[in-house]
Amino acid sequence: MAGEPGDSVTAIDAGQQVEVTTCQVCGSGEREQLFADPPYRVLRCSGCGLVYVSPRCHGEALAAVYGESYWRSEKPREKGYADYASDERLHLKTFRRRLRLLRRFLPPGRLRVLDVGCAAGYFLRVMRDEGHDVYGVELSAAIARHAVEHLGAARVHVGTLHSAPRDQGAFVPGSFDVVTLWDVVEHVPDPQALLHEVRSMLAPGGVLVLETQNVASRWARLLGRRWQHYKHEEHLYHFDPNTVRRLLEQTRFTVLHNTWTYGGKYVRLSFITERAHRLHPALSFALKPLELFRDGNLYVNFGDEMVVFARPAP
Ligand SMILES: [Zn+2]
Fold it and tell me: How distant, in Å, are the alpha carbons of 54, 78, 196 from that of 28?
């Protein structure tokens, strides 16, 4: 029996984790278990196909996931990044490449840009260098300090979008030509609330750019439970083109485009070694999409990310 989306959790473990009983997108309580990785279970909603994790961290336990050890993780296969900030050059290169795609959908001229979940501010630095007026929001103080250092405290709010001050000429509702959510929506317990807030920040004609992993991609299906995006503390949801469209339409967006192209990233050779361990049986297939660059890094696109462009529905 379907319940109300967002009204679906009960505390089970002293407030550290909650059991999720209904689907966040369609409200159905019917689901099948894809696999268990105790204490977590990965479930697929029978109503809409959303893949989600239960139980999951919440509140302070969830916020604690994104401390210093998330951005310099000793176990990046399970959580976070090996060393996010030391890969600065690669992140900048990845976003410069994505700019080619963005230019097809963004309005011309100098844009007001808001990156929600801006991490160290790499995308914003790329956009600033293109002449745009850039602002960021980042919940994790551990990584936001890099963004503040490069862009200034007036342009980076450390906290949630909801808590960003609306009265300082920076985070003004209705003023942004583009809002980006790079690898954010799958981490957020209530993505509808976030998307409603994002919509309120967009100017007329503004564009939302949302990137998230695609659980229905060939790569994800081939790897099954070994897929690198199954990181249960942080990835609460795994969308596909249908569920992300439904989520966006629920929050009164119209999807303009959804593509896996430009969803790749530049990585170090050591990243390949680390992944090869996880991918062992499929290693030869894994090496196929690699594109070798002369300065020692690789552009990798497994086709398992979606870059979605959307516009507020009239
Ligand atoms: Zn559902």
Answer: 14, 29, 21
CA of 298 to the centre of ligand 1 (A): 37
CA distance 280 to 283: 5
Task: Work out whether strand 265-267 and strand 298-300 pair parallel, antiparallel, or are unpaired.
Answer: antiparallel
What's the 27 CA to ligand 1 centre distance in angstroms?
6
User: Any idea which residue has 């942080």 for tokens?
Assistant: 234
Interval 37-73: pLDDT, tens? 999 999 999 999 999 999 998 888 888 888 888 888 8
Alpha-carbon span 82 to 70, nearest angstrom: 8
Q: Is the dihedral of CA 167, 210, 63, 84 positive or negative?
A: negative
Show the domains of the chain with their CATH numbers. Answer: 86-213+246-312 (3.40.50.150)
For residue 256, how far is its CA from the centre of ligand 1 (angstroms)? 23
Instruction: List, as ranges, residues with CB under 5 A of the ion ligand 1.
Output: 23, 25-26, 28, 45, 47-48, 50
Flag whether the pTM goes above 0.90: no
CA of 297 to the centre of ligand 1 (A): 39
Name the nearest CA neighbour of 236 among 199, 193, 191, 181: 191
Distance of CA 30 from the midpoint of ligand 1 (Å) = 8
Question: Residues 138, 63, 71, 41: is their CA dihedral positive or negative?
Answer: negative
